[in-house]
């Protein structure tokens, strides 16, 4: 019966643009045509083509959506005719008539974008019913109650979605529901299905009156008018608020548009031998290979979703509808074999006959994504490459972050929610200052640092905390950045919370907590809970740290499999951004092959060092400065010894001092006074110096190599520490291989690099002579201001490597301060001005073009120029893909993102090879 | 006798790089070879070639300087031999022998860069004297006193310059001078020339001992050792501190290097029929065509310069040395005819015989530059194009700025000096706050606003002041920028001054002045004076303003001539940056052809508007905001009516609101309280809102189009005001032509522009419908962040014009805050990392490349894209040249720079045509 449309039938339409694609007896599309037909339409066509029982229908392509928005919400001229032909074909296949009184064809009208956007756009069911056809339906089904129930459902849906009754209503309750409830109450009935046909008929009258009252228009009786109303509503829903928000969250371009699927209705509510359900070929939460789903007898699909009746688990069908269950299991197997992925499909049983209404690759948790991919490979359904491409790289994270005990979390008191900024779960005592966090931590307590926002001053406190909670700032705020860098759990912008620093309390939604009280935060969901919830390390982490056997953890096996495959296919090297031996060790355990960014400034905050650092900054001349630096030298050397040891011969890129010096100085009057006392300086002098160092735009001020040029003695001390550490390890009893790469920050002019280079080489010579040893090292620069990229040919004369500092490069290229974008970012997101947050995912059109320019021109000057990236983007899979194609040699991300980067790098290589 | 070296003699040297170029009987160079021979060397060759009496010599080329610094201060292998040959040739021409006992040749060794750098590098005279040759000189001159005086001068110079005796000396007094003074004192003699030959011989011994004591080396007796010592010192002096500073001030690249000129000595101190002098072919101060200069008999050149004896005016020579004076006048005429420019030349008369030692285009004041160029054209020595190219475009400014009465200034008490940041002269009462400045101004008093630094808050006070004096900040500080924009006199960074805001005093060098006291500042020189000095408008300004007749002012005639010529040859249109009708009128008088940048924010500071503006900013929602904006609308409309009228049909580019809103809010607690009272808001609310608007890096924060996107109602109000003003004028009884060009600031994404564009078009439609009139307008964007330049192809889809905002584009491209660079800029200047201040002169390699990219790609999308520049650079001649070559259609600078820009644009066109 089924046939794929042959060339002769499509010939005429190939002359003009084809807008309508049939499925059913004749099928024009297939699964590969997602761009044109949307995911749903393409899969309906595919299922029809392979003989699965799909109700016939047709798809209006995404091209029409594009046309619709480009032409003031109108349609191509030929569309009306094409749709009519397609409707007639569907009617013929169903042996019914659209708008026919005796044997009416009803259809559903659904959206379907390239990627599924569940629930975001509009759907209309039972379309084709009017005051006449409802009678026909009553008579052929021999079930007037069913017919009138369909009609009243249709009017309600149509009234809402197409005619906007709910939108016009100022109360939040749905006015259709209100009418339904009124009727039930006045009749003393509880459930919808207790209403009789006559009562439903009365309800239909009330619904129609409601529509007329609210909109001034009557509910349309012409079935084609109904159809075009529905099609317009679905296309229109592509730009509703929810859809826009969803797209901005999932990075779906507005240009894609949606298709519209029009399909013959089948009825799960035609009697007790009917039913409807949703099923997954495997468990979408855990990935386990079990048949998973739920169904309802004598119901339409919306009933399953709406939760009016509680659906039964799919397994129950084996007893209740055994024949259909056997058929369904066959469909399950067939679908997975055919689509080679876990499927999420909808079915309807109409009077004992099974129909499949939709199938798609099922949404799944990160864990499930990994398990399914690995197991599909084990089952030989897909190869390793395909398996890797099926796992969203981010999902690896779900195997690594600490988790709350699910039961404990459910029982805990939710205070409010904020932005999930650092995944994982953390519990601890509230500390409102960095100092307090440290005190608690030293007592052995777990701490959650709660601040309106954080600053570099708070770094130590953050290091000592389990998690960070802020009331201001977004997922790109200082708190979030540092938290992710440190692998800390973090929630940002929990705006409901008010912190009173004086009284040392935080208040949200009527709950007030004091300093020292327990609080728990789930950085994966953004939820903040009162009290303590126990959390634990992930199994993977425990195996990597040796506190659990690999053989005992299936999660670890999954992780390990994915990582091994990734390493096999990726071309990019994965480095990490780490400042301490501990961070370096974690990163190596996660698979880091080197350090791409060691921020030396973090080393100056520890213990008493900050005092020496401050003395250095407050020095009035080079002599005083050198004196303070002399005290810092042995500490820096020790840092580097530790780091080199932890990296055991892997390359280590060390960035010289970068932040503006005032970041190291205390903002607090009391601390300033202490500092003045400690250094034996007048308080006024200290205050004046701090004032003198104040900058209007510190981001663009005296930082980076400008510091090293202004105070060469700082550069001297730092490189001396690096080279002496190298010498120490190379000449140790058990020598350790060392590959230092010295990175000069914020270079924009080749003369800047030349100036610092001269110091580096001079000190290297001195140390080698003094220690009587030779060692190799590299010197390069961070490319983080546009001028560095633009003049890459000149800068490569002096630089042996470029490392793209895409955080600052994004700030300068876009003229956009990461810390200050909060004021307008919501509005920008709403208006879809940035397709993605440019600090989370590389702005390829802007920043990316500069990078491309730098790569091309840098390599013209120096063929063997080493290229990497160390900005936050280096941990973002989409950006990693871009870096692969750009020809970088490595990406360097924070330790917890190393496994993600390994997978993303493999995926990039696999995609590029395609 | 003289001959130009023919090809046969240079053939051998053309095989290898030629380093030595002779002049004299054989001359290898000419005036066009400045790059290779330096200005002095090239002109010596030219003079020799045209038969002027030049002592023979040779030039070691700038290539050697380049080699010298590239090879650790060593020389090309072949140089020693070439120099020896050249020395021998000079000796032969002079019929003397270098190092010969009987008839010794003495030479001078002088620097000579492409552009003259007077006094910056080292010179050695009388080289070739030693214990033997001094006797020879004594005998052939028959004047032992003369010989020994030459020798002691030589030792002193050599000891200082080559052997570094003075540098080693810790006292500031020259130790050679000390010995000389000692001897005179012990002998009871007053003048140098009272010392006898024997006494000078004794002095020579003491000099040699001093050198040996200080340096541990003896004064060299080998004449070639002397020569190489001197050559090395001259090359070395290219990188002394003075030379580096001079280059950075005058924008001379370090790569040019210097040449070294070695020339036979002739002696102006050989007796009373000898002498030496410096002359100008015209007056270098006024440009008047008079013979100008001074001379001394029986003296060496250094005596004229050193001021030990007071030289006589050149006219006196007519009586004292009449024959030589006649010769000299002939030389004067010959030189000017030949070099076709005012010459500054040195001469020496040795026993009645005239020698010309050097000639160069004379340095001159701006006024002189213009007068000389115009008069040389009148005299038919040069054509208009050549004349235009001879005037440094900046010099036009000297015709325009107000001036102090010269006598009054001389008599006034100089307090200290700062950086000359806004040229001109201003006198007024001291005001320490913007508010006080306004109060004084309203009383009708002239005011000098004295601040440690200024902020946008101070704008009104600056507008009311005659001049601005700051103790901090450089020539690119806020004060300097605004002052130049407003045409105000300004001195910045007068670091000797301490301001005590509490006591309302300023103190410098022991002088304390109170608020209300008179102070005078000369913004051209940076001098600060106590008390009142009268100043007056320039003649040009008075003519342009109609308070003086054009025919009465020769200065105006000069100005007008230069401007007429400029307009004839330039291709660039000249617009102005003006925010008020008064500024616009001034600019039009100066020749502006349109407004390229009207900053609407300045309009919001006037009178009570700031309160409405603040109310708008503090609004909690769109409703409140619209209410406040409603009050601002009529004021804005009035502003635009005034501006359009003043521009009388010329195009007017209006930039929508740009600065971060917190710039409009008061920083001062008292003012905040007043504001809260006035608006009926709780003080806490006001403080909180101000806190909420605080930004870490306001430069990169919520400003530019981000404001208009966040608060569309601001854009609506502004464009409504613009279009209503246009409609009003077009429909007035006497209609005024109007060409508004609306500029959206800080665009980086085309979606930003599209968003604002929609508002502009919508409001335009509304106004046109309401006013029943059609008008044309343009909408474009400022290109001021790198991303705008990089995605110019996309942005040009929506923009009808690009205006390069190079101030911000420089800040973002370089990652460099103009306000904060003071901390390290001195060091950068010292190390020559920036070839010029990138905010004063366009960074062509970096920012320029982005501009090029934007032009090319913008025009690809939109062929008729209008292109201009409105950053500060638009008033910088060098940057104007770049803009011409880039193919921009206009530059827009501050009103006082319009004439400069006209000339610079003409020069750019003329240079490009070459």
From TrEMBL, chains A, B:
GO molecular function annotations of the record: ATP binding; kinase activity; metal ion binding; pyruvate, phosphate dikinase activity
Alphabetized SUPFAM superfamilies for the sequence: Glutathione synthetase ATP-binding domain-like, Phosphoenolpyruvate/pyruvate domain, Phosphohistidine domain
Protein keywords: ATP-binding, Kinase, Magnesium, Metal-binding, Nucleotide-binding, Pyruvate, Transferase
Catalytic activity, EC: 2.7.9.1
InterPro entries linked to this entry: ATP_grasp_subdomain_1, PEP-util_enz_mobile_dom, PEP_util_AS, PEP_util_C, PEP_util_CS, Phosphohistidine_dom_sf, PPDK_AMP/ATP-bd, Pyruvate_phosphate_dikinase
Residue ranges of domain PEP-utilising enzyme mobile in the record: 446-526
Domain PEP-utilising enzyme C-terminal: 559-908
Top-level taxon of origin: Bacteria
Residues reported in the UniProt entry to bind Mg(2+): 784, 808
EC class: transferase
Cofactor requirements of the protein: Mg(2+)
Binding site for substrate: 599, 655, 784, 805-808
Sequence ranges assigned to domain Pyruvate phosphate dikinase AMP/ATP-binding in this UniProt record: 35-71, 78-315, 325-369
Gene3D superfamilies: 1.20.80.30, ATP-grasp fold, A domain, ATP-grasp fold, B domain, Phosphoenolpyruvate-binding domains, Phosphohistidine domain, Pyruvate Phosphate Dikinase, domain 2
Active site: residue positions: 478 (tele-phosphohistidine intermediate), 870 (proton donor)
Family according to the record: Belongs to the PEP-utilizing enzyme family.
Summary of the function given for this chain in its UniProt record: Catalyzes the reversible phosphorylation of pyruvate and phosphate.
PANTHER family in the cross-refs: PHOSPHOENOLPYRUVATE DIKINASE-RELATED (PTHR22931), PYRUVATE, PHOSPHATE DIKINASE 1, CHLOROPLASTIC (PTHR22931:SF9)
Name by which UniProt lists this protein: Pyruvate, phosphate dikinase
Annotated source species: Pseudohongiella acticola
Upper classification of the organism: Bacteria, Pseudomonadati, Pseudomonadota, Gammaproteobacteria, Pseudomonadales
